[in-house]
Design goal:
single chain; alpha+beta; Butyryl-CoA Dehydrogenase, subunit A, domain 2; Butyryl-CoA Dehydrogenase, subunit A, domain 3; 4-stranded antiparallel sheet; 3-stranded mixed sheet; 12 helices; 9 strands; binds flavin-adenine dinucleotide
């Protein structure tokens, strides 16, 4: 059954659109993109709308979990700027979803109320210099030493580590042959001695840039093990639990928001730009192109919110979330490139936002589980014989 948006979600969207218009005008969003700025003051005002409580249960001061509303928030923010959308994800998804699902009672009591208020951001420390898709092979290690944990290794592409309160760090805690049963997740504040964070220069997602993180004899208390003592060597099940569905969808929601913004810009431009004595929207090729991208957007929206509402209903959605991540990110890429073509030469200049949409969008079929990995997941989950 397809998802029908509730009046509460529509009202939330309306207030987010007013917020974006007022607090995130295009000119500011361009500045954040060009100067790689996280606008913490704007984020703080966003938190006043209560949207950082959407993945936290009422018992801890939130109003969730409400994954449909969380995705609507990401979509609306991503239409204008990932410099706010990504930190929002670092709060509600990386922090809220993971601690809500896998945190120890003490971690929940300490962190969730602050997450609901938007006061805590997590960076995801999964990827490493030698480890991309094959996350179970992480080389960063941690060992117990009394009531301490000592971590050594390196993380790469760790978005926003320098902005975060904790790096949600996947580490190997037993011998390499115990694959999937030798992983734990440790919460590491970036200010801990032995942690060095270096901002790297990816083409998009400015404002919450990727970082390289070096971890040399980093000492944290055993209470930093996600899930407490029971979490030791149980990190893999935390990564692939229902949190994984939300992780796929949050990337898809960004892709949908960016694609919608690109289509809106190309739609308006086509009705203003005059060539051969008429607006280019009068040429059949442009009309068909815009009709196609509107149709693609509709399909993307249905897939995203169908999967999100499945999460909210507790219905199975591993396949649907993988399909949504694959379809929306790949379609999103083709949509923004089509829109850039419609805008023509101006679409290749910094005067127009379409070049930003393209830079941001190119990241999304790769980050958070690449398209090929989603294809593998879909074929495996649907039981396709490997011969
Ligand atoms: C801007 C940006 C932000 C990011 N933010 C974070 C973050 O915050 N935290 C974090 O941990 N990571 C982050 N990442 C890393 C991202 O999640 C990884 O890039 C992703 O997991 C893929 O890893 P890889 O790029 O090393 O590709 P690889 O795993 O090296 O793969 C290279 C290519 O081979 C393909 N491939 C690999 N294995 C298979 C297979 N079994 N079957 C078919 N094809 C395969 C992939 O699809 C890809 O096309 C970010 C990346 C970017 C670009």
């Amino acid at each position: 059954m397809s998802h029908v948006e509730s009046s509460e979600t529509t009202m939330l969207r309306d207030s987010l659109r007013r917020f974006v218009d007022k607090e995130m005008p295009r000119e500011l969003a361009r500045k954040w993109d060009r100067e790689d700025i996280f606008p913490r003051d704007v984020f703080a005002r966003l938190c006043e709308l209560g949207v950082t409580g959407l993945t936290v249960s009422e018992a801890y001061g939130g109003t969730g979990p409400n994954i449909v509303a969380t995705m609507a928030t990401i979509e609306e923010l991503a239409k204008r700027s990932l410099a706010v959308a990504v930190p929002y994800i670092m709060c509600v998804c990386y922090a809220g979803m993971n601690i809500g699902e896998s945190g120890s009672p003490q971690q929940k009591a300490e962190l969730l109320p602050k997450i609901a208020q938007g006061k805590i951001l997590f960076a995801y420390g999964l990827t490493e210099p030698n480890v991309g898709a094959d996350l179970a092979s992480v080389e960063t290690t941690a060992r117990r030493q009394g009531d301490k944990v000592i971590v050594n290794g390196a993380k790469s592409f760790c978005s926003g580590a320098h902005l975060s309160d904790y790096i949600y760090c996947l580490v190997r805690t037993d011998s390499p042959d115990k694959r999937y049963k030798n992983l734990s997740i440790i919460l590491i504040p970036p200010s801990t001695p032995g942690v060095t964070v270096r901002v790297t220069d990816a083409i998009g997602m400015k404002g919450a840039p990727t970082t390289d993180v070096s971890l040399v004899d980093v000492e944290v208390p055993a209470s930093a093990i996600v899930g407490g003592d029971a979490g030791w060597n149980n990190g893999w099940s935390m990564l692939v639990g229902s949190v994984l569905n939300v992780e796929r969808l949050e990337v898809a929601a960004m892709a949908l928001g960016i694609a919608e913004a690109a289509v809106a810009d190309a739609w308006s431009y086509s009705q203003e730009r005059v060539q051969f004595g008429r607006t280019i929207s009068g040429f059949q090729a442009i009309r068909h192109s815009l009709a196609n991208v509107r149709t693609d957007l509709h399909a993307c929206r249905l897939m995203l919110y169908d999967a999100a509402s499945r999460v909210d209903r507790g219905a199975p959605c591993n396949v649907e979330s993988a399909m949504a991540k694959l379809f929306i990110c790949e379609k999103g890429k083709s949509i923004v490139l089509e829109c850039q073509t419609i805008i023509g030469a101006y679409g290749l200049t910094r005067e127009f936002d379409i070049e930003k949409y393209v830079r941001d969008m190119l990241i999304l079929p790769i980050a958070g589980g690449s398209s090929n990995i989603q294809r593998n997941n879909i074929a495996n989950m649907l039981g396709l014989s490997k011969g």
